[in-house]
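<instruction>
Derive structure tokens from the sequence
<data>
Labelled lines for chain and fold
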Amino acid sequence: MNLFLSTIYLCLSLFFTSLLHAENTDSIIVTKVSASSVFKHYRAENAVDNKITDDSRWLNSPTQEGAIWLQLEWDEVRTLHSVQVFSGFQKEQESIVSALGIEFREPDGTWRSIPSAMVKGNTNAALKIYFDSKNEIKTNALRITVTKTEGGIARIKEVVILPSEVKVTEPVKEGNYIYI
């Protein structure tokens, strides 16, 4: 890799890390993480450790059968505004999670899909998913189900969950998500 590309990559990494840390001051603190499977040292907890790096990410097992999911829980019920998902490996476009859905847990323990959080055709490593303001999402748990990724391996570097009380400028919408 030449010096110019290395510099660009470093600047983008620093930008996304600073963006995460800037918004993460008001984000929900996840206290329990579980996953459909884990590959080597790429534990599920890595997806919520405030680090957007290839060394600190969650990967599911490449031999896993069935749905690929990451479940995030926190202590008290909160009303949610949006979720940020950072995925991929280095600059490999094909390693980005290209389709996913998000569910929330109801008070009775059942899981319900969030229609505004169904993403298809994603090509960006940094994605912000806004929840439909017409349907309040009140919960203490989310489950991200990866529905399309290269080779059946989800590479999630970081997930940030923002509550509704965080004042965030609404984006110009492309569906209900934007690329950050």
Remarks:
- The longest strand covers residues 68-87.
- The two ends are 25 Å apart (CA to CA).
- Residues 17-24, 171-177 have pLDDT under 50 and may be disordered.
